[in-house]
Write a structure and sequence with these properties.
The mean pLDDT is about 95. The protein has five helices and nine strands.
């Protein structure tokens, strides 16, 4: 049995097409089996996008590097490329099928300047970032999730921030405790339907 965090999913292809609205704009997406949330944008990622759009205004991001860490089929990368064009967007994932879908979804939404990188965490990523968005791969276990937190901290520029989404029943409180070991500021900025949006700032 393969998982969405496998580099080469073996699941038979099952493509789906749908639309979603963020910031008053409608986005088109294609997804497939073998990737995270193959039926559409999951509630946690949707809440993450909506919350960060509210915290990062339309004028934000000029010249800043933005990482969609564990991008899946690219919902975060697509939305922020369109609605926050000042950011230099990088989307990464270990799952090659997810990366192909991200490329497809960027094209579907007329985005051409985002960079897509195959990477296990930060293994193949180059340079540092000013903003990281992350929906942690909880099924990989705390060891992997906490490694990604630590690597994210190291990859952020001073003054950089990371936003993550975590469900309360899947260890959100423990994530906050872990993040406080690295970040100067850790704040729960949104709670809704069991999901926590956590913002971490690096001095």
């Amino acid at each position: 049995m393969t998982h969405y965090f496998d580099p080469e999913p073996e699941a038979e292809h099952r493509y789906r097409h749908f639309t979603a609205e963020f910031g008053g704009e409608v986005f088109a997406f294609c997804t497939d089996s073998g990737v995270f949330s193959a039926d559409g944008i999951d509630r946690g990622t949707a809440l993450l996008i909506e919350t960060v759009l509210a915290f990062e205004p339309a004028t934000a991001g000029e010249g800043e590097r933005f990482l969609d860490l564990g991008c899946g089929f690219g919902a975060v990368a697509v939305v922020f490329s369109k609605l926050r064009p000042g950011f230099e967007i990088v989307a990464s994932d270990v799952n090659r099928r997810a990366l192909e879908l991200t490329q497809c979804n960027l094209r579907l939404n007329n985005v051409t300047d985002a960079l897509i990188v195959e990477s296990d965490g930060f293994e193949s990523l180059v340079g540092s970032f000013d903003l990281i968005l992350h929906n942690p791969p909880i099924r990989c276990g705390k060891k992997t999730v906490y490694r990604l937190f630590k690597e994210s901290y190291s990859a952020l520029n001073p003054g950089g921030r990371m936003y993550i989404v975590n469900r309360k029943q899947q260890g959100a409180a423990s994530s906050v405790t872990e993040l406080c070991q690295y970040f100067a500021e850790v704040e729960i900025i949104k709670k809704k339907s069991g999901y926590w949006i956590i913002c971490c700032a690096k001095q």
